[in-house]
Structures are given as structure tokens and as C-alpha cells.
Amino acid sequence: MKARWLGLALGVLWFGSAAVNAALAQDASSIDRWNGEAVISALQALKASDIQATTVAGRPAITARTKDGLNVGVYAKACDPAPPGVEPICHGLEAVMSFDPGRRPDRMTLADRLNHRFALGKFMDEPDGTLRLSRYVVFEGSVTPANLRADLASLFAIGSLTTQTLWPGAAKP
């Protein structure tokens, strides 16, 4: 069963890479700082729903729901100081998914196991009892919209596989 899910993950990542390579040929524009429109466009291309632009601690953020029903937050990071009312220039983003593994006393061990199994992002045992999957993207040197979609698509795929690890046999968490 585990091999089947791992095979599915590799297939999703391979097909995603093929789609990204095709998109790279068509989409050579670059993103060199936080761009809410580019993030929303990437989320829409990945069939996310409930997309909401907001701010968190004065920095831009976007929340959404993946097509698999997982909540994701995309937050502007590495921001230069800006006066009140002026959107800061941010040089990175962090995409975050949280999972509630229940009352497992071994959440740190579970996070370590997930980090070794899915080395795409970082799983952390949070003080509120959840596990957080985090993926950081740095815009320095620029990324293309296709690269941004690929990063988010990979995170979404790992998020789906994480649900199968935490709740085997369940349709959704």
C-alpha cells in the first residue's frame, strides 16, 4: 500500500515536471519579489478554491483550499521595512499546510519521519498539537510563474500523501 502511494507521488511529480517544462517554454516572465497576482494565478492554475488575499502582521498573505480539500496559506516573507499603508517589498514566500494528527504523543517523531519520507519541505511539531508542512521560495534571482506553480503543485502533492500517512484509508482528513 505504501509503495502504491509513493508510486502515485512520483507519478504526480513527474507529470507535474512535464507540464512545467512545457509551460516554461511558453512563460519566461520572472517574479523577483512577492507578487500577489502571481500567487493567485498559480493557485487558480492548480484548481485551488476559496482563494482569499489578506494581510498577516502587516504583510501580504493568501489563503486557499487545494482541490484535495486541504487548507494552504501563502505568506510574504523576507520583507523590507515599509511605512504604514505602503505594501512592503518581500523577497520570499512561505507556503504552509497544517495537519492535526490527533492525540499522538509522538508528534515530533512523526514529523521527523515525514521529513525523511518527503524531503520537499519541512514538517514541524507545533505547540498547538498540529504538524505544519512548510515550503519556502526565495525570489532573489527570480523565479518564473511556472516554477512557482511547480513548487506549489509539489507541496500540494506531498500534502495529499501526508493525509494518507496520517489517516490511512480515509478519503479526506
Strand order of the largest sheet: 1-2-3-4-6-5
- Overall structural class, as computed from helix and strand content, comes to alpha+beta
Return the CATH architecture.
2-Layer Sandwich
Largest sheet data: 6 strands, antiparallel
Examine the coordinates and then state which fold CATH places here, giving the name of the CATH topology. Yope Regulator, Chain: A
Mean pLDDT, to the nearest integer, reads 83
CATH class: Alpha Beta
Please state the overall shape, judged from the principal axes of the Cα atoms.
globular
The parts where pLDDT drops under 50 for at least 5 residues are 22-26
Using the CA coordinates, give the radius of gyration.
17 Å
What's the number of extended β-strand segments? 6
Q: What share of the residues lie within helices? A: 25-40%
Q: How much of the sequence is in beta strands?
A: 25-35%
> What is the terminal-to-terminal distance?
18 Å
* Overall number of domains: 1
Q: Report the total helices.
A: 4
SSE arrangement, N to C? HHEEEEHEEH
How does this structure look, described?
This protein has 4 helices and 6 strands; from the N terminus they run ααββββαββα. The protein is globular, with a radius of gyration of 17 Å. The protein has a single domain (2-166), classed as Yope Regulator, Chain: A, CATH 3.30.1460. The chain is an alpha+beta fold. Residues 22-26 have low confidence and may be disordered. A 6-stranded antiparallel β-sheet has the order 1-2-3-4-6-5. It has helices spanning 2-26, 36-45, 107-117, 145-166, and strands spanning 49-56, 59-65, 71-79, 90-99, 122-125, 131-138. β1 (49-56) and β2 form a beta hairpin.
